[in-house]
Amino acid sequence: MSLFQLGNKKYNKATEWVREHSFRIESLTECNGEDFKFLEKVLKDKRVVWLGENGHGIAEHSLLKTKLIHFLYQKMGFKVIAFESGFVEGYSSNYMKEALSVNELMDKSIFSLWKTEETYPLFELIKENSDLNLIGFDLQPSVKKSSIVAFINQLNINFPSEFIRSIQKVENTAISFYEQIGIYKATRKKVPKEILNNYFKTKKEQDKLIIHLQTMLKYLKREFERNGLSKEYAVIQKALENRQLFLNHLASRKRDFLKIRDRVMADNLEWICNELYPNEKIIIWAHNNHIYKNITSSYKPMGSLMSPKFERQSYYLGLFMYQGEVTFDKKTTQKLEKPPKNSIEDYMNHNPSPVSFLDFSKASLNRVNKWISRNTVILDSGMIHTFIIPKKQLDGIFFVKEVSPSRHI
């Protein structure tokens, strides 16, 4: 047998293993809870489920995650959804959700890139169920107008007017500089010196103001406790910490800021799970690049920064795709590159159904599935060739054959 024939035989055996061990969903738009029942066995001992996505702006990924969350909430008792969006924005909007419309709940909580037709049913579910809680874990602001003062005004606490004015000023400053500096960072352009000088001057003032706010908050701690608002006190305290870190590092080099961001997001998630919701099962919504575990390079995503205990409680679930078009920046539509042979996308594409799931966590390694324990190519965002060790970086994957741009509301 020639080397070419031998290679083809190994490849065919590998794709046959994928087909034999995958669960399939025949219609993403029509599937319901029964189609995800196989996850009950896979996730039965897990407290945290990480839901990745291979790029923001993929309609089918958002729709699939929305349906998965419905299942996890209704059938498996998951009651906290932690979004890759602002920490205080997520908590404060959830706190006030009874008075908000579904559109307002989305506007006041998540990054606008997820305000789509595909996620709308998820926010209907959050609004309609008081025991289903939304929170963010990002240190970056995710909205253009902070609702922290509206949240604070809901509390039965006699806040000094100075506290209200000062915390609003911090929020306004963070959002303003995020917009001014972020637009240059996003396009990899140099931030104008005038903006930077103003930022560094303002940063010192805001740092002093946040320290003053933290001192005022400590004087109010007993009042919070008397009113049964210890959790709300801790959230405001954590919100101030996040804003201080954000303002202190916003102008750092992009790679340095991304490292800091993942570190803070990891810390926020640990705090959310251990302190804020210690008895709840939690779903994490984020990009694949944030959820990979066991990354040992100098740049570690938040999934690789979690404590061993947190990792043992977790199931890391990446989402991938094969072909179609996406809109990552809400404006420009891009066609996906065809995945190369022996990539994750190529192996998974041998499943006949439009959506499939493959569990790595309980897979026994053998000669035909060696690719799950070796460096295997993937297309990050459907275009950038990179490598992961599937079984090491993830516990399982969902795969969608054909994708399209998210439909923004």
From TrEMBL:
Pfam families in the cross-refs: Erythro_esteras
Superkingdom of source: Bacteria
GO term, biological process aspect, one: response to antibiotic
Protein's name in the database: Erythromycin esterase
Organismal lineage: Bacteria, Bacillati, Bacillota, Bacilli, Bacillales
